[in-house]
Amino acid sequence: MTANTRTRLSPDERRTQLLDLGFRLLATRSLDELSIDLLAEEAGVSRGLMYHYFGGKQGFFEAVVQHAADDLYARTAPPAEGEPLERLLASITGYVDYVVANQAGYRSLVKGATAGNDSLRAIYDTTFAALAERFFTADPGGDVFPDTPAVRLVIHAWQAMVEDLVLTWCDSPAGLSREDLLSVITASLPAIIDTLP
Amino acid sequence: MTANTRTRLSPDERRTQLLDLGFRLLATRSLDELSIDLLAEEAGVSRGLMYHYFGGKQGFFEAVVQHAADDLYARTAPPAEGEPLERLLASITGYVDYVVANQAGYRSLVKGATAGNDSLRAIYDTTFAALAERFFTADPGGDVFPDTPAVRLVIHAWQAMVEDLVLTWCDSPAGLSREDLLSVITASLPAIIDTLP
Fold first, then answer.
1. Do A160 and A116 fall into the same domain?
2. Where are the beta strands (DSSP E) in chain B?
3. Whose C-alpha in A15, A91, A165, B52 is 20 to 30 A from the C-alpha of B140?
């Protein structure tokens, strides 16, 4: 029965299913420990099919990272309407909830992006640049986030701060509720931008 | 002549010299590319001596990272006297100047700490924890930096922000002078702490 259910998936659905499984496996394993063999076994598919879809281990890693990055980007889409700071809060809430729900996998991806090859790094950088871009599209008048090189520099650094803040908070919440954390993250960006000359 | 000069060094001086050389070589090579053979060749010493001092490649890496971390800690020592924010500024100035002067080596160490084994990670974490500790010793009354778990969480995240800010600024200064950068870094910490509930 299971095999029949599987074979009814379209190639795209099957591919997505394998990527989701790869990301879930990252929750308890590092990128180094994740192998085509392990994935094929867990998914109940042949190694040949894995190679057919991903071309090899490196191609699979990149596809898993890209899939996770696309997922993160989709889940942090701000509402189409609203004040810039409200839209920022909605987007940040999506980010925090995503990281909390996928902590181990997210840590693996950060580590893979830092340690890994240029392709993984590029996916990570492109994703965070796309997330940063939202500040300017959410605030086209530049009232809160004027689009200057200095503000872009600060947003990049604030993203690094937020990543560290959420991951550290997951380990040890330091008396802060999820709402406290969201409030610190949201309020700190305009506060840091205010320190620019 | 050179060989004679070398042999006059004490074992401690020789070891320090090798660690300095290792750190300088990291400016243009990753940890992976740095080998005992290369270092022995550059230093004009035997591989046997390298193994005698460091026990192998991993021991050498750890010694280089620990040496760089100790150096960073020493160079960022705040003045013994002064207002907390002035002492913070002096300490941050030391950090920024160190990273700017040792950019490539510093990037290698960050990458090694993120990707590497637990020993490298522990040296990195211990160093940043020691740097953070200074905020509380510089402000024993807790006027600017009350010693609470939430403030410690924020300082940890702010350190990640500062690291990203300085490294990104090295690549592209975004119209900010060194003084502008120092001012953003120094002023942002109290501003972020103010966002705590």
1. yes
2. none
3. A165
CB–CB of A175 and B115 under 8 A? no
Tell me if A180 is assigned to some domain.
Answer: yes
The separation between CA A69 and the C-alpha centre of its own chain, rounded to angstroms, equals 4
Tokens representing B115?
Answer: 């990707």
Q: Are residues A181 and A94 in the same domain?
A: yes
Per-residue pLDDT of chain A (197 residues; tens, 9 = 90+): 444 455 578 888 888 889 988 888 877 776 777 788 888 898 888 999 889 988 888 888 889 889 989 999 999 998 888 888 888 889 999 999 999 988 888 887 787 777 666 888 899 899 999 999 988 888 888 888 899 999 999 999 999 999 999 999 999 999 999 999 999 999 999 999 999 99
DSSP three-state, residue A121: helix
- Write down the ipTM of this complex: 0.88
| Structural domain of B42 | 2-60
Q: Which residue of A has its CA nearest to B150?
A: A174
Q: Which residues of A lie inside 8 Å of B (Cβ-Cβ)?
A: 110-111, 114-116, 148-150, 152-154, 156-165, 168-169, 172, 174-176, 180, 183-184, 187-188, 191-192, 194-197
**Do the chains contact at A149 and B160, CB–CB below 8 Å?**
no
Whether residue A101 sits in one domain with residue A17: no
Q: What is the CATH number of the domain that holds B23?
A: 1.10.10.60
